[in-house]
Amino acid sequence: MAPILILDPGHGGVDPGGGTNKLFVEKEMTLAISLYQYRRFQELQIPVAITRTDNDTTLSSEARTALVRNSGARCCISNHINAGGGRGSEVIYSIHASAALPRLIKDELEAAGMPNRRIFTRTLPNNPNLDYYYMHRETGSVETVIVEYGFADNPLDAEKIQLDWRELAEAVVRAFCEYAQLAYRPPAPSAPGSGENGDMPEWKRDAIDWMYEQGLLTTEDWRRQPDQPLPLWAEAVVLKRLYEKLRTPG
Ligand SMILES: [Zn+2]
């Protein structure tokens, strides 16, 4: 059965992508987002394909667009993280396509807490009849949308992506289902890839609860990624709070 949608994790292999910072590498974050969406579309029984499934695969622009062009899919979502100074998501679509899907993606990402910077099309400087981005220009009749989830070099965007990339990925799943008029169900709490931790051992949960009871951690977001390391600044905050606590008992 031909896929309705093909997902494209941006970059990969020797190309890490520019949307990289101290928290994540673009090619790895776009793969995590894409694999999450891939599993979710499968759960929803929506035929889906993907251009790469590991971080070692290098795809030339020719190979990548050929995969999309020959996939038989109606749509392609190409996942990226932006860089270069800005705040919020961007959705880029073809000059030959409508803004309907980009608008839904923008709305759903906003609802998931990521502001939108713009949705736009862009043409080649020397040819107003051709798309600027090869993912639009070389993917034939497939309706390709490039989603930039936020700016790696903006601290607010970067932290939001690092903490909530599953929610942002899910927002795009919701938008696509709405656009293609396919039945959408939210992820089951313990579904694989949903980011929940239904089977976390009690001793882990107790230890995490203790951090919150003691006021060492206050942001609820950390609870959702119990197996992820804290960034250095957050560790510093925890240690500082502990130090203050020990200096002023009671
Ligand atoms: Zn990119």
From TrEMBL:
The keyword Hydrolase applies. It comes from the Bacteria. Keywords: Hydrolase. The keyword Hydrolase applies. This is N-acetylmuramoyl-L-alanine amidase. InterPro entries: MurNAc-LAA_cat, N-acetylmuramoyl_amidase_3. CDD domains: MurNAc-LAA. GO terms for cellular component: outer membrane-bounded periplasmic space. Transmembrane segments: none annotated. GO terms for molecular function: N-acetylmuramoyl-L-alanine amidase activity. Residues 65-177 form the MurNAc-LAA domain. GO terms for biological process: peptidoglycan catabolic process. SUPFAM superfamilies: Zn-dependent exopeptidases. PANTHER family: N-ACETYLMURAMOYL-L-ALANINE AMIDASE (PTHR30404), N-ACETYLMURAMOYL-L-ALANINE AMIDASE AMIC (PTHR30404:SF0).
